[in-house]
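Worked example (supplementary).
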Amino acid sequence: MRTIFGKGIRMPEVDKKEPLLTVEQARERVLEAIRPIAGERVSLADAHCRVLAESIVAGHDIPAHDNTAMDGYAVQAADVATATRETPVTLAVIETLPAGYVASRTVEPGTAIRIMTGAPMPDGADAVVIVEVTESEGDEVRVFRSVAPGASIRRRGEDVTAGTVVFAHGTDLRAGEIGFLASLGRPYVTVSRRPRVAILSTGDELIEAGQPAEAGKLVNSNAFSLAALAKEAGAEATVLPIARDTLEDISAALVAAAEADVVVTSGGVSVGDFDFVKAALDGLGARTNFWRIAMKPGKPVVFAELRGRPFFGLPGNPVSCMVGFHLFVWPALRKMLGVEAGRLMRPEVTAVLSGPVKSSGERRNYQRAVIAWRDGRLVAETKRAQGSGVLSSMVAANGLVVVPEGTRHIAEGESVRVQLIGEIV
Ligand code: AMP
Ligand code: MG
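After joint prediction of all chains, the assembly is encoded as:
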């Protein structure tokens, strides 16, 4: 195996006669070749659902001061040590402190400051008596319960201390992270640039959605599902015009597609008379890494380096195409975005089959399924029609049940491995 270095991609050369790769071997080869993309500075609001491309160190403590967790009275705990409902302790209220202000007075023995949640603890006080166990009377307060020193105080730095690395490079920024970054006073952050994915559908049979139906033609749905998947993965999709099944048309389209960061095609990678994608790649001097994987659906999946760009040639059958994307393109895009190795794929879970599953048994079979919680356990309901052309089997499918190579039948109620491809709802 020889190794070449291209623009951001390292691609081993392979012998095309070698046996089919397992999904794991193929994915490993893909990931070996992928390099992280550069970062860009964006406003915090725009960073939502992006991937952090810097590590974030807390510049200050959170909370910045000791403050009260409750509405009540800041006191010296020793003053109210004997307080009960029958024997209340009376304190002089010397100030009222809303959140957002600092006390001007110090709490001395026999005194209290009325204080609202979030307000910084006044000097001299070591506890807060909650308002519910007090009774206010003019400039005084009667306290009916003792408190331990430190009661109802949120300590400075309790959440984060200055200097702590709070987020590593590669963190997915969701609502929680965005809010936290705001609390650290970061109006801008560096996130990975969205990889630009060129999507190219090949096939003489294709018409665009909205064009009048014609005998023998079908709608180019792959462009839409692939663009949607690329966006879900955090990339930016550009859909190119359909390439017709000629070497010239596909070659020209591939040259245009290679302007993007990643190229994804559908169709034309099998062994049919009009499958020109592999020949076009060869003609353009691309390095093909692999083109066959021991899986069903989606055996022919080409991975190559095209003009320094990662190239994925997915099969045309709409289901194979999407499954190929989930298994290989998804983790590649996530790696480009800087996500760490353990989180490139969505998780794999174990679920119980709601009905029996059949497979031809030769190659590992990925069966589309709906995965849901039922009576406290995850249940996988595989779609009835599992043909690689049955796009309706992808509707609402959030998991791929993994039927191992050699297995022809799995009974209802058995536990199976499931690769999630969407959220469990
Ligand atoms: P291919 O992999 O090129 O042999 O395509 C296999 C089959 O997938 C074709 O016969 C079409 O039925 C279907 N197909 C190919 N490309 C698309 C596409 N862009 N959208 C929807 N179906 C497609
Ligand atoms: Mg075709």
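Two points are worth noting when inspecting this output. The first helix runs from residue 23 to 33. DSSP finds six helices and 30 strands in the chain.
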